[in-house]
Amino acid sequence: MERDRMDITLIIPIAGLVGLAFAGYLTWYVFRKDLGTPEMQEIGDAIRQGAMAFMKRQYTTIIVISIILAGLIAALIDPKPWVGLSFMVGAGASAASGYIGMYVSVRSNIRTAAAARRTLNEALVTSFRGGAVSGMGVVSLSLLGVAGVFYIFNTGMDFAISESLDAAIGFAFGASFAALFAQLGGGIYTKAADVGADLVGKIEAGIPEDDPRNPAVIADLVGDNVGDCAGRGADLFESTAAENIGAMVLGLSLFTFWTEFVPVGMRWSESDALVWIFFPLVARSFGIFASLVGILAVRLTKEDKDPMSGINMGYYITCLLAAAFFFVATKYMFGDEWQYFFGAGLIGIFLSIVIVYITQYYTSGSWRPVREIAQASTTGPATNIITGLSIAMETTAMPVIAIIVALLGSFGLGQMAAPPEADTTYRLIYGFYGTAVATMGMLATCAFILATDTFGPITDNAGGIIEMSKQPENIRRRTDRLDACGNTTKALTKGYAMASAALAAFLLFGAYFERVYMKLHEKHPTDPTITLASVFQVDIAQPDVFVGGLLGAMLVFLFASLAIRAVGKAAHAMINEVRRQFKADPGIMERTSKPDYARCVDIATKGALKAMVLPALLPVLVPVSFGIIMNALGYNAPQAVGALLMIGTIAGIMVANMFNNGGGAWDNGKKYIEAGAYGGKKTPAHAAAVVGDTVGDPLKDTAGPSIHVLVKLLSTVTLVFVALFVS
Amino acid sequence: MERDRMDITLIIPIAGLVGLAFAGYLTWYVFRKDLGTPEMQEIGDAIRQGAMAFMKRQYTTIIVISIILAGLIAALIDPKPWVGLSFMVGAGASAASGYIGMYVSVRSNIRTAAAARRTLNEALVTSFRGGAVSGMGVVSLSLLGVAGVFYIFNTGMDFAISESLDAAIGFAFGASFAALFAQLGGGIYTKAADVGADLVGKIEAGIPEDDPRNPAVIADLVGDNVGDCAGRGADLFESTAAENIGAMVLGLSLFTFWTEFVPVGMRWSESDALVWIFFPLVARSFGIFASLVGILAVRLTKEDKDPMSGINMGYYITCLLAAAFFFVATKYMFGDEWQYFFGAGLIGIFLSIVIVYITQYYTSGSWRPVREIAQASTTGPATNIITGLSIAMETTAMPVIAIIVALLGSFGLGQMAAPPEADTTYRLIYGFYGTAVATMGMLATCAFILATDTFGPITDNAGGIIEMSKQPENIRRRTDRLDACGNTTKALTKGYAMASAALAAFLLFGAYFERVYMKLHEKHPTDPTITLASVFQVDIAQPDVFVGGLLGAMLVFLFASLAIRAVGKAAHAMINEVRRQFKADPGIMERTSKPDYARCVDIATKGALKAMVLPALLPVLVPVSFGIIMNALGYNAPQAVGALLMIGTIAGIMVANMFNNGGGAWDNGKKYIEAGAYGGKKTPAHAAAVVGDTVGDPLKDTAGPSIHVLVKLLSTVTLVFVALFVS
Hints:
Two copies of one chain form a homodimer. By secondary structure, chain A is an all-alpha fold. The longest helix of chain A is centred in the last third of the chain and has 51 residues. In chain A, 83% of the residues lie in helices and 0% in strands. The first copy, chain A, is globular, with a radius of gyration of 25 Å. At the A-B interface, α6, α13, α14, α15 and α17 of A face α6, α13, α14, α15 and α17 of B.
């Protein structure tokens, strides 16, 4: 019985490999589909080339900066030089995740367009499975990466568990770091192109979306891929990696507790106690199987049904299976207290469903918020923006309340699982672990959710290809329906990502404190005042700690400012270029000559690459230099950095929610008018709504998702550099 | 020597009475000026009647709600029923402050317009002294009110110091509560009218600002008075009251320390130790004298000089005198450690100057931020908004860094002043007291700053009266110059108000902890675990405390959302009404018939009154019910509420800075174009800039200033209701 508990960890490599094999199967499934007409292929080729060219240049920049940083880490951070090395591996794996997602998505778009000529169901299945390659690939790679790095150091090189986790933290940091660049660069690219294409094309020239006469149209379609597929793929890769490792670090505390501090008679064997460290990976492994079934279940039973119903069916199947698997995993691994952790896992699964509903309320045309924005558009762009900002700020309320309930609930359940031997501090860690289990519950459906996210840009692209290659109206209607559905799923996944980040906050804070304790203990092995209890606190009543919080909140605002400005600047250049082309060659509007697509692609590429560097470095430089300075000045640097991390996280949750949901509401406010409200298209109300949609674009697709990565990066950067803040 | 220290407190009633007398003199000075032409008087009368009618209806609502709340407080909070009573007195005094400011400003506007027919200097002096009535009145009333309430309870009714302060806290809460209504109601009114007048008048009908053909023009001019004069007057009244009382509560801790815990030989006499409690009031008293001289010094030496130079001269004189008086007060009262507190006071004075410069950088047309917004306007309203949002978020960075330095500096100086007998906790309180002294330094110039703030709407109104009564161009140019100067000063005072709120944060947090300790000690007088040290902490590593912070941040966002939406809704109604009038009576545009001004005034009034109630109740209901629920559930309610207060304050600082400075930048981006950049007026760039200005209006004049009051209200509400959170 004793040895059994860890046997289940065998599932980790199996799930990782099955996930990769399944991604391979999906790729094969999509790639054998036909490529449509030569016109369609020509457009598809242009998108693919633009996207691949951007990826190449973007990752060249990322790799150069990563190598420099890896060198610094290797020089400064113990165990040298392994943290630097695993940082590079993490950055590389994150890049690979983005690349795989993109590789498949720029090939699925054309096949989805071709399938749309036949049936809606075939188009849905093609695009969804294309998206699922990314979802499965990312989650499997992250699982194998984290487990692999830990295994190599712990078993292969015989490092202690703590040191192996230090190295694994380097992996998570590398993943976050590369992801922030990818999400920022991709996000700036996509929105600069989108804003530029829309403002001149739709508003000034009066041509429809995705019209081939628009010089920025290819850049816009490329942008969907580099922003939503590659950027989001890297983002979710780093999220899962960071959360897995954070949970393992927390688990290490409980491992230590059960192997060292519990009275001898009750003590767990070392192997048994390892479940605390490995449960997160096991939970993720089961999540891969649940998502696999859910992805296969996505289909339309009838041609005239809403494609969203097919996706919802798959999602609910995934949730149910995840709950069932959680039952198995917790019962197998946690012994008598399994029901508390099972409960925490259910809270996580349930929170993900609640967030989906809240997001729909705020971003779908069926309810008050979007309709208020549409109504405000009748009095012009200014009232549209004012109302939209108000809705955007309101959207923070309900998710925060849901998160508060989920946090307190899973924390309380975790504490209940603590044995009587646990003192206050260990009860606290048990509680933190409860929130970690809830996070794992929420993330069990991650592969599925990521599939729905990447599905969005594939359908968007397919619609563009159909429009540009002048396919018949009924085919266009099919891709339009898929596209509307993709807009909803994109909003949902952003809400999901942010809520899971909030739920994961405590897990990562806990990991941070655990590391602070380890580093302090290493420096002062005999000091009896250094206890877990004395380290596990962030007392913002102390001014030096409070100012860390002030700085953390400010960092989020400054970062958002830089991300938004980058889009504004690049869009400004794009608008001027499109205007120039229309003016220089009147033949473009008369369809007698072709616009210069490549030039717009180039402007978006350059704008994105130049603008992504400063905001991406900020969340590394600020916490590290703040920690070093506070430490040098004799202040309580570990707590001050902790406050920066925690209050930065709170600010990030607020601003990202505001941006993601607000942007979605603006977008659908415009769609609501386009569907016929207030006179429909070509009215002043519609023009006002387009302004709102355009303003929302950089918020929801550049700054919002980037803040999600930023919050995670704050955690991993403080975890990696913690040794520099303690003395 | 011993008795001397408190002798200086005699200055408190003297300064209060001198301040009131000086306000009386200024009123006499302004009122004896002539009223201009009959046309001018007709317009002035319409503004005055609209403003007074709104005030009457607004304060009827406020009084009814305040009486209900006072009853609840009297029933629930000790010492009953005195806290409820002093709450009513505070609310009444706040209302009186707003009323006085308004009474004078709606009579100064016409006199400024009349003076502008003669010289710019006379117009400047008239409008500035009109504004100074409000500044002096508010600061003097607040000083007399706080000192009076404390004196009546402490000396008159023989309450203990702690109980007297409890009652005085009720006064501060009443003032905050009424101020939030006044600022919200006035802010919604002014911006609904402004947005409505601008969007239809300037953009759709193409008529200039303040054109008499615009039906909303009188409502717009009324709005300047009820929002900027009455609202801001009530706001600053409550700020000074809350900060004075918070500092006195902190002082009580040091009083207790010196009279009880210091070894007998070194102990201060009770009278001597009272300086800790009374220093804040003494510092404010000296500030009144400094401001008095500064106000008299405002004048123009040459007719062609920038009016801003005259105001700056007065400001620097006030700062220098304040520094000198601080030297006297600290040296007289604090004995051997005076230099540390003098240093802290200088930090406060210096911070106010730094904030003024930062605000000018972000909101004046001479630097990058405003110019970027103007440039982005050339590609339309969407890029204008995107760039403006980016600038708005960027503006949080520099003030936060300045505040961090000032906080740590004044805290450190305060700690240095602590005698060796002070343990860690008392050293902490000494540090808090250092930030309180810095706050007093910053607020020493408060009366002057408030004068420059109220000066803004007076000149704005004067310009409107000149325009509407068709005075010659050269006179209009004079009021335009004053108006531009007023826009700058309005932005500066908002930056000043927010920075002082941030600096005051610790003083108010400290007061909160002190009250928590007192209440716990009252409930468990013999429990040795209840110490100041155990109470003076907010450990956000505890999830129940952390969720309080999450809730506090959310509260700020939700509040901002409600405030902005109220403006959007009322503006929407206003736009429809103005459009209706233009359509129903074409004679309005041809100047053959007069528009129906009263109807627009009525729409703004109703919109403001209806919309102000929910957002104003939110910051009372949320913290109190959260505290009660957390306490009932057995969580650490005092700390959780503390986190709500502290992280709510951080979020408030961010959002208010973003709104105030962003709105100012949008406003001046438009003005920059109007001054000739990018083709000047009547270009698409100008139309785009008007959209940005309009979006910024509710941010900078409704939500931003209201958040300032909200932050203070969170402090006073938690101070008053603290007994309900402890068990």
